[in-house]
Amino acid sequence: MISWSVIDTWIIIVGVLSAVGCALPGAYLLLRRQSMMGDAISHSVLPGIAGAYLIMGNREPLTLFLGAIVIGIVTTVLIRLVKHGGKIEDGAAMGVVFTALFALGLVMIRRAADHVDLDPDCVLYGAIELTFLDTVPFLGMDVPRAALLTGGMLLANVLFLGLLYKELKLSSFDPGLSDALGYSSRFLHHLLMVAIAATMVASFEAVGSILVIAMLIVPPACAYLLCNRLLPMLLVSAGFAAASAVLGHLSAIALPPVLGYEDTSTAGMMALAAGVLFGGVFFLSPKSGVLAQSWRRVRLGAQLLSEEVLGVLYRRQEAPGVSARPVLAPEELRRGAQGRTVEWLAGRRLVRQGYVRPVPGGFELTEPGLHEARRLIRAHRLWETWLVEEMNLRPDHVHGPASRLESVTGEAMEEELARETGAPAMDPHARRIPPAEKH
Amino acid sequence: METRTDRPTTRPAVPEHRPAPASPAGTDHSPNAPISIHDVTVAYDRKPVLWDVDLDVPEGRLVGLIGPNGAGKSTLLKAILGLVPVISGRVAIYGKPLSKQRKLLGYVPQRESVDWDFPVTVRDVVQMGLYGQVGWFRRLRREHVRRADEALERVGMTDLADRQISQLSGGQQQRVFLARALAQDAQIYLMDEPFAGVDSATEKSIVALLHDLRNAGRTVVCVHHDLQTVAAYFDYVILLNMRVVTHGATADVYTEENLRKTYGGQLTLLSSAATALAQRH
Asked: A33 and chain B: CB distance < 8 Å anywhere?
């Protein structure tokens, strides 16, 4: 049985606030194809915090925020300088800058360790489980400092992204036009980086830099797979971020007993939950999900196969001296199908449409099936004629294209085809083109 | 990092001597010209791309900007728009600096310059053209939304207004960009290869639109590649290969000899164009 306490409530509140606060600016990183920039800033922000700490001697939000602003600008400018001065690509420039700054930050923390309680472990993994220990009075109640900090960060991000919604949209999509219209894309880029640095700093204590990177990128990546417009994408990102935080903490409570562990990291579980959600979207998204795509492939395969079946049965029937209705053996269907699913689906489709009926030894055409087959064969042979006459293809090269074209040929197109080819009686292979039926 | 365009960094090793900017001995610049380019030099890294470009673009013309690959055609458009720093010289729009005249300029960048998977609809993109008219922090007003929809109507894309841009064909993408510029209702349009990768029907309709713009007194400058259509599309040409080879009314300066000068070693490209020209003259 899960035991719930006020501590869990605060953990979830802090988790949701920081996750949503990260996901919103993170969406812009993803869209600008600068996701690695989140990684870079999350590391390089360390000397900013440590420096602000050493100089100001406290860790008030304002101190940390100042450190973040400075380091955000320094990182962005340094990366640009290294990139252009060294003529290397973005990723390499980021790699050079953030590792150097991170190392510098670690040294500074070591140096400061005697005076202050900054802990490298805490910076990396966070201490969301302990946030309730450090409370401040707020509106008459004791609220964890981390909740205020992450809440303030979320609010600031909503304000920032709301006020500059149009500017950030434009400069992310088309920096050239943005500059041409007087919205400096470089300035906006710097603003976004500063916002991300500040976001990082505010989230560090609670969730650590590893989770921050996950929250910057993974929820927006989920939303990107699902959304066609920017505002919905931002909202859906926020939704995924919140869901990751909640699911993460629930599984951090529920899983260890099941798996036989003593304890697990809540922040880690939140990142894992985000990853699992992404996996789900990746497979299940109706637009671009792997499942949807393979389903579309199977369905298309079944459609083509069932048309092929009709064609084969029709051709057998028109062969000279055949009077009985020809039968298609199940093995033949299997041979034509790419996989059992396609075979099953094609068979089901044909029976459901009433084009074939099962008889001993296989399937035979029904009356509607015969009509449909005649229509398809007519379209097929008209296309073959057209391809030979109009496109100057060789007669032995037109079967493939005609087979693909026949299945998309509607009534109007068929009439047009007949008109352009002069409605011949025979196709290029000297087979009879069935006459048009009364529709 | 911050944009997807190349950015010049250092000054190139160009010779020091240069004619005094806007000297009376150079081009006589008119203060009324839509675009006045005064001795502009632009360089990426240490390699000059444009060298001492000095000309006035006349008003109400449909101007073809012609030259081989790497001649600096796109860079010249970007220099006019202030998107690349010029290392010397200046550009004036109707006699005033660009910063005061941004609203007069409409820009159609190359299609590949943006990410067509971006989560925006056709209408969103067209509305972006109007962002320059409302200023920082402000939102578009109803009037702007209406103008964007009218621009969509003009390029025949109304039916696709709510489509995500990733679902468009090349020709449709180009028309979206065109609509975005039309929505700006600019005096001067700068277009970077508006015909690249579009089908012939779209090309025809774009040409008709450009002629409409010109007939309405707008100045249109297009980077153009197809030498065979230059004479039919444009009434003024600028032949560019790092420097301006020549510029003037198409009938006067679009000659085989000038093309030869512009394209230098790439004469094989010209054989077809030369034939086409010979037939026309």
From this structure: yes
Among candidates B4, B107, B138 on the partner chain, residue whose Cβ is nearest the Cβ of A180: B107
Say if residues B235 and B250 touch (Cβ distance below 8 Å): yes
pLDDT digits (tens, 9 = 90+) for A366-404: 889 988 898 899 989 988 888 888 878 888 888 888 888
Q: Indicate the helix (H) or strand (E) that contains A41.
A: helix A35-56
> How many whole angstroms separate alpha carbon A178 and alpha carbon A176?
5
Fold classification of A6-285 is ABC transporter involved in vitamin B12 uptake, BtuC (1.10.3470)
Domain ranges of chain A: 6-285, 293-365, 370-421
Enumerate chain B positions whose Cβ falls within 8 A of a Cβ in A. 1-5, 7, 9, 45, 78, 81-83, 99, 102, 105, 107, 109, 113-115, 118-121, 124-125, 128-129, 131-132, 134, 136-140, 164, 180
Does A84 touch chain B if contact means CB atoms closer than 8 Å?
Answer: yes
Which pLDDT tens digit goes with each residue over A316-373?
Answer: 888 877 777 888 888 888 887 778 888 888 888 888 888 988 888 888 888 899 888 9
pLDDT in tens, A196-221: 988 988 887 778 877 888 999 999 99
Closest-CA distance of chain B to residue A235, Å: 13
Domain ranges of chain B: 35-280
pTM: 0.80
CB contacts < 8 A (A, B): 104
DSSP-derived pairing of the beta strands A141-144 and A356-359: unpaired
Q: Tell the CATH topology of A370-421.
A: Diphtheria Toxin Repressor; domain 2 (1.10.60)
What element of type H or E holds B215?
helix B200-215
Q: Which value does ipTM take for this structure? A: 0.83
> What class has domain B35-280?
alpha beta
